Amino acid sequence: MLRKIACLAAVAGAFISTPTYAAEHNILVLPTAYFPQTSYVSAGDTLEFANSSLETITVTSVDGEWTTGPLGPEQSATIVVTAGMSRDFIHEGVTDENGDPAVTGIIEFGSAPLK
């Protein structure tokens, strides 16, 4: 009986002590889009923005809370996701004919919807 309890305690301890790991999300920065456009994240995750264009592009949240800084071709930058951070981001300085951001992306907290 003690042997069974010891085994159960060991198994339970393994599950209880298993740490939760942050996920890394890769976002391709293209001249006219982000891929994926929407990233589903949790606080503590990281977003790696990788410039896959031939131009220098700066990715910035719409309110200016965070930025990658200028990313040259084939350069990348990592942003750590924090609770309550600004979720919408754009190519800084790139607008459409109406003056609205031409390239947009979204950070959503939680899991991706099931289809």
From TrEMBL:
Residues 1-22 form the signal peptide. Keywords: Signal. It comes from the Bacteria. It comes from Ascidiaceihabitans donghaensis. This is EfeO-type cupredoxin-like domain-containing protein. Gene3D superfamilies: Cupredoxins - blue copper proteins. SUPFAM superfamilies: Cupredoxins. The keyword Signal applies.
